[in-house]
Amino acid sequence: MRKLVVDDAIPFLEGRLDGLFDYRIMPGAAISNKDLKDAQGVLVRTRTRCNATLLDNTPVSFVATGTIGLDHIDTHYCDAHNIHWQNAPGCNAPAVAQYVWRALLELGFNIATDTLGVVGKGNVGSLVVEWGRRLGVNVIVCDPPRSNRGLTDENYLPLEELLSRADAVTFHTPLIKSAGEDPFGYFMTPTVHLANRANLALLKPGAILINAARGGVVDEEALAEVKRSKGLRIAIDTWEGEPQINPAHLDIADIATFHIAGYSRQGSSSQRARILSAIL
């Protein structure tokens, strides 16, 4: 029987694997190379860095993550070592979109008069856009990768223009540290500090900014400066350096949560379904 090591934060899996795998459930941050010495697979979330340090000299042949993001998985290493990997795209998109709209309304966004800027129109961003337009909101979008691939479903704007025109901006991009192909074969440019000191200064006084994408997409030091000078209203769910965030940065946000926007019963069920389909 194949052996698995499973992050204890993946919901609704216990009991579902009985009779199919010999599995061990443990805290994701504690999973080590030693724990995988006789395992054929590992099921993780973002707490486990799946790279050479974890996977070298193990029999692991597949890695599944119950997350959309892949920045904790070295997909190039996995591909080079014939390790199949699977994420769970879209599993928590409705929950994050609900978080974003709740934050917008709580921070005073006026659906009748304000313009919403959405940076990244993927699984989450597309829902934020769709729901906004159903409410009659003027929504503008920036997504260079989609634009570069010839997807013409939007009049995609440059980031600087979007930031200067929007009354509220919400980020929904992956965290990309260096230029190159993403795991799905599309060329991507870095998104670390995509929102930086220079372009954050383009925001309107009193604008709303939400980061429920990845910590590091927004330069939090620069955001603190612009908040003071322009009176920004801010919601942050994803933080630079998480889980070891800078406590001083908590003061930046009017709404501060700890990467929980995607946690919902619906999203958890979808995670389980994606993971099971990947390993069965």
Structural commentary:
The two termini are about 15 Å apart. The chain has a six-stranded parallel sheet with strand order 7-6-8-11-12-13, with helices on both faces. A five-stranded parallel sheet has the order 2-1-3-4-5. Strands 9-10 form a two-stranded antiparallel sheet. α3 (about 95-105) packs across α4 (about 125-135). The protein has two domains: about 5-90 and about 265-280, Rossmann fold, CATH 3.40.50.720; about 95-255, NAD(P)-binding Rossmann-like Domain (Rossmann fold, 3-Layer(aba) Sandwich). The protein is of the alpha/beta class and about 280 residues long. Helix content is about 30%, strand content about 20%. The mean pLDDT is about 90. The protein has helices at about 50-55, 75-80, 95-105, 125-135, 145-150, 160-165, 195-200, 220-230, 265-280, and strands at about 5, 20-25, 40-45, 60-65, 85, 115-120, 140, 170, 180, 185-190, 210, 235, 255.
Question: What is the CATH T-level topology of the largest domain?
Answer: Rossmann fold
Tell me the total number of β-strands: 13
> What sequence of helices (H) and strands (E) makes up the elements?
EEEHEHEHEHEHHEEEHEHEEH
Which second-level CATH architecture of the largest domain applies? 3-Layer(aba) Sandwich
Provide mean pLDDT, rounded: 88
CATH class of the largest domain: Alpha Beta
CATH superfamily caption of the largest domain = NAD(P)-binding Rossmann-like Domain
Structural class: alpha/beta
Shape: elongated
> Could you list the spans in which at least 5 consecutive residues all have pLDDT below 50?
none
Strand content: 15-25%
Cα-atom radius of gyration: 20 Å
Percentage of helical residues? 25-40%
Oligomer: single chain
